[in-house]
Specification:
SH3 type barrels, two-stranded antiparallel ribbon
């Protein structure tokens, strides 16, 4: 193993040992009764504090019968080992459980409130979804009607254009027939005029011939 690796391992071990030595141990006042913290390791020493059952004390130095402890206000003194315990006191456990229970009730209320809000949002979303569905159905129906009307319009337009074309063709044919009739009437009028005029001339000539006196011959 390299020298640098060995040094690194020893440094880490030393740091862990220092951390373990520096971390304060915790003791709790026994649940049985209130304990006395004195100025020294003996029942004849002056009491500097009466610690309620279940309170936390910091262990400074543990002896055979007495241990040096530090109070939460920073004062230091000595307490009997039999009145100290490493286990979390029942009163503290109960206090923690009550706090946890209170927190759970608060969380439950928050969850119920969120659930109610989500329910309201879900109801609103459902309403919006229904409205959107209805609007979509109406739009689809309007679109189908528009398609139908558009098809009918195109059909009507085609028929109208067809009728217009047939009407135009009929008009053109009518005009042609009218022109032909006019020409025929003009021709018949001219023929009638010529025929009538010829008859008049012939009659006039016939009358003139018949009225002309006959010439007498010398035999008479």
């Amino acid at each position: 193993m390299k020298k640098a690796t060995k040094i690194a391992i020893w440094v880490v071990l030393w740091l862990l040992i220092c951390f373990a030595m520096g971390e304060a141990e915790i003791r709790y006042a026994s649940d049985v009764c209130e304990i006395a913290v004195r100025t020294g390791p003996g029942t004849d020493r002056k009491i500097i504090a009466l610690v309620p059952a279940g309170r936390e004390l910091e262990l400074i130095n543990q002896g055979d019968e007495w241990s040096e402890v530090r109070l939460s206000n920073g004062k230091e003194g000595f307490a009997l080992n039999r009145e100290l315990t490493t286990e979390t006191p029942s009163s503290m456990k109960l206090e923690r459980l009550e706090k946890k229970h209170t927190d759970l009730i608060s969380q439950n209320k928050e969850l119920q409130q969120k659930l109610a809000e989500l329910g309201a949002e879900n109801k609103s979303v459902s309403g919006d979804r229904n409205q959107t569905h209805d609007a979509l159905q109406k739009a689809e129906a309007a679109y189908e009607n528009l398609k139908k009307e558009s098809a009918e319009f195109l059909k009507f337009k085609a028929e109208y254009q067809k009728n217009q074309k047939e009407l135009q063709e009929t008009r053109e044919k009518s005009e042609q027939f009218e022109n032909q009739l006019n020409k025929l009437a003009s021709s018949q009028l001219i023929e009638g005029f010529l025929y009538g005029g010829g008859l008049v001339i012939i009659g006039f000539i016939t009358g003139w011939v018949m009225k002309k006196p006959k010439r007498r011959t010398g035999l008479l």
